[in-house]
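Support request, please re-run this one:
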Amino acid sequence: MTDTASGLPPVPRPAEQPKQIVTPLSGRALLAAAVGTALVVAAVVTALWIGLTTGGSDPNRVTAQLEVLRIGLSLGLGGGGLFALYLAWRRQRSTDLALLQKERDQADVARAHALQERVAAENRAHQERVALATESDATARRITELFSKAVEHLGADEAPVRLGGLYALERLAQDNSEQRQTIVNVMCAYLRMPVDPLREPDEDPDAHRQWQREREVRLTAQRILTSHLRPGAEPGAPAATFWPGLDLDLTGAVLLEADFSDCHLHVLQLNGVTFVGTARFAGTTFAEDATFEDAAFTGEAQFGHATFAGRAQFRGMTFAASVGFAGAKFLRGARFEGTSFTADAGFDGARFARRAWFDKTVFARDAEFGSARFASDAEFRGAAFTGNARFVGTTFATKANFHGVAFRRDASFREAVFARDVSFQGAVFDGAIGLRDATFRKNAEFRGARFAQSPRVTAGQFPNGVPPELSEPTTPAEGGPPWPGRRRPPVSG
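Re-run finished. Output below.
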């Protein structure tokens, strides 16, 4: 059986306890009991009295009669007292049983009330769950409708409609944190759509206007993403606008004047991305691996004071303009093998906590590594420095490998510190090499190195004196100017 109103089982009635109260005596019964007791006593006294009066007027008999009378009266009074005590006991017993029954009744009422309250609480909880489920369904339907309409606007032909769709998605993500990743995926998918940003249709005014509108839509999508990836870094930016823990998949996308400065990026996939204009990553934190392989930078790349908490992958890339990693921190290794820097490359003050690979890297212009610190191995095997190479004040805490490196112009290692072994075996120095105040604490290998100008070193710079390769005659580099008037570099000390 169920309650038709609430759908819950009915409240059970408390079980009735048998009443054990003594049955009260009526007034007639009490009168009959009193009269009967008096008659019995009177009969006994009368019988004794008659028995004593039949024997004459003996004084002893008179005394006996008086004693019988006294005894009879005592019996009457005693019987009445016992009967009164009995009546009092019955009243007390009835009162006690009545109190006990009252307590049981109150306990039953309390249990029934508690049961009613519990059932009422269950009814309220059930109603709240039903209301919450109804509200959640309504919210989900509303979010779905808003999302569908915004995505539909994003696919419209008119640029203002697409802009409205982007802002609608941003507002929806701001108000519903559980929908942010999905909305970010949609925006990233829009940026991954193919476009040729390097070819502006100047001859066709309509096509040119269409391209300008598309450019504005893409810039807006980028600004929406980056504005919510900064944890309150901008002045006046509330922390509530920061969307943490998001994954951005921009593989193959075309980014225009990308500005990720001071952003905190969780997972960012940038393989094959084309950066048109200046790409800004100054002060950016890459929480996971940062992979830029096959990416193309058509303008400047700014990574100053960026933090790479994961591995930094820049292998096989080409930087068409200057690139700056000044003060950047590479916490889990940096790979620049086969990368081409066609303009100036700045790594001054950079920190490499793990191994750094610059094998076969081409520096077409000046390369600045001043005050950088390599806490682990530094690999520059086969690298080519077409411009000036500056390692002034650089610290190499472990091994440094410059095997086969080509220094086509000046190379300065002034005040550099080589804490472990360093190898310049087979290196080519077409310009001046500066080793003044450089410190070599372990082995320094210069076998097969060729110098166009004489390196000036002192024995005090090396733990075991000047390396033999620097104290013996050395052939100038091919194509380089001969040393004027001497066959070997000067060595002092």
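The first helix runs from residue 27 to 53. Residues 477-493 have pLDDT under 50 and may be disordered.
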